[in-house]
User: Which sequence fits this backbone?
């Protein structure tokens, strides 16, 4: 039964794996397929998917930071209006010298996503045109969406607070102290610790 | 006698009366709290019965309503809008984000205390404040004007150095025009 349901998804993975040798695909569930490729292959996989397989819509380019593995993962999310399948194309790039080819000749609007990723993660897209500054203004720290960027530390160094935040403890404990009420059992499981 | 102390006071009273009953609001609605402005202004809560209505440009407005968090980027625009406004001008900080960072207290790109950067006459707390609270805030401002205490613009002129210093901490690449007010 499941075979027939996931038919088109499995066909898609087979087709991609036959066309590109260094590609591994997986059916996540109905209407969702992920494939992992080397970063050099990304433009060709994308243009193949667009021109031959009907994945004409680029929904988003997303980025995940994996400091544990010293990697950035870039994810291209494609959509086929005919198949109604979402295709996730994932690639890993090194965190030390992060660069990847830009793909805005395949989809023009990729430019916007790439500029955002360039600014927020500090990844270089080879051949990407467009002002360096996109969303942030006069930013001189490390790219803020990297996971080793410490926002609390940054805030402490750059902003001041009105007094009164330091003792921001668990609100429930404060309520008990002031009113003498006990917390109902259902609320305890939301307690901070 | 026009220069007599008493007659001046009467002029002031009339001026303040008209000021507080025709507050034209420039709503700077980049924060999520801005969603409470439409109900405040429209028929259900009808802020216009207090003489409060929206205005299109800073030069025509009396009141700058900052609804919520300001990013360091939008702060720039707020300062420019504020400096273009004509005297008398007032500022209302709306929502806990303007008071002490609110739920964005650990965000790298929102300012925490609005009154460090521009003078705030009235704060309305809440995340987000209901229209009743907003109208209470407006009435509070009207009372301050009546008592002659809503002098944020005066404070700004006198302490411009201090405000500029704070502003420059956030706006590192200072390319702001000088308005001669
Ligand atoms: S105070 Fe609350 S409602 Fe207002 S801008 Fe901040 S988070 Fe949004």
Assistant:
């Amino acid at each position: 039964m499941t075979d027939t349901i996931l038919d088109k998804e499995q066909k898609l993975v087979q087709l991609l794996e036959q066309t590109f040798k260094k590609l591994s695909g997986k059916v996540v569930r109905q209407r969702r397929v992920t494939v992992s490729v080397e970063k050099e292959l990304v433009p060709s996989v994308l243009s193949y998917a667009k021109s031959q397989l009907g994945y004409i819509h680029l929904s988003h380019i997303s980025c995940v930071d994996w400091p544990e593995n010293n990697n950035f993962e870039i994810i291209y999310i494609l959509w086929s209006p005919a198949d109604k399948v979402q295709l996730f194309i994932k690639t890993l790039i090194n965190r030390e010298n992060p660069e990847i080819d830009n793909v805005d000749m395949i989809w023009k609007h990729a430019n916007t996503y790439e500029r955002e990723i360039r600014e927020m993660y500090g990844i270089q897209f080879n051949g990407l045109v467009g002002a360096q500054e996109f969303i942030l203004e006069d930013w001189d720290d490390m790219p803020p969406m990297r996971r080793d960027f410490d926002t609390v530390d940054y805030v402490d160094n750059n902003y001041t607070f009105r007094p009164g935040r330091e003792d921001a403890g668990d609100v429930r404990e404060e309520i008990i102290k002031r009113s003498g009420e006990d917390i109902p059992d259902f609320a305890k499981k939301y307690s901070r610790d | 006698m026009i220069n007599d102390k008493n007659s001046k006071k009467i002029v002031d009273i009339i001026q303040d009366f008209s000021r507080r009953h025709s507050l034209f609001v420039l709503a700077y609605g980049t924060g999520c709290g801005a969603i409470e402005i439409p109900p405040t202004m429209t028929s259900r809560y009808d802020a216009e019965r207090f003489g409060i209505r929206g205005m299109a440009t800073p030069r025509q407005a009396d009141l700058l309503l900052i609804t919520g968090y300001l990013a360091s980027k939008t702060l720039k625009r707020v300062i420019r809008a504020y400096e273009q406004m004509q005297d008398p001008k007032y500022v209302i900080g709306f929502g806990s984000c303007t008071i002490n960072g609110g739920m964005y207290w650990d965000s790298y790109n929102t300012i925490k205390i609005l009154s460090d950067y521009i003078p705030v006459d009235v704060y309305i707390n809440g995340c987000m404040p209901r229209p009743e609270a907003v109208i209470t805030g407006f009435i509070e401002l009207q009372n301050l004007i009546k008592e002659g205490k809503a002098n944020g613009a005066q404070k700004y002129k006198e302490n411009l150095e201090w405000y500029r210093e704070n502003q420059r901490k956030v706006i590192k690449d200072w390319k702001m025009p000088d308005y001669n007010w």
Notes: Residues 7-181 of chain A form a domain with the Beta Polymerase; domain 2 fold (CATH 3.30.460.80).
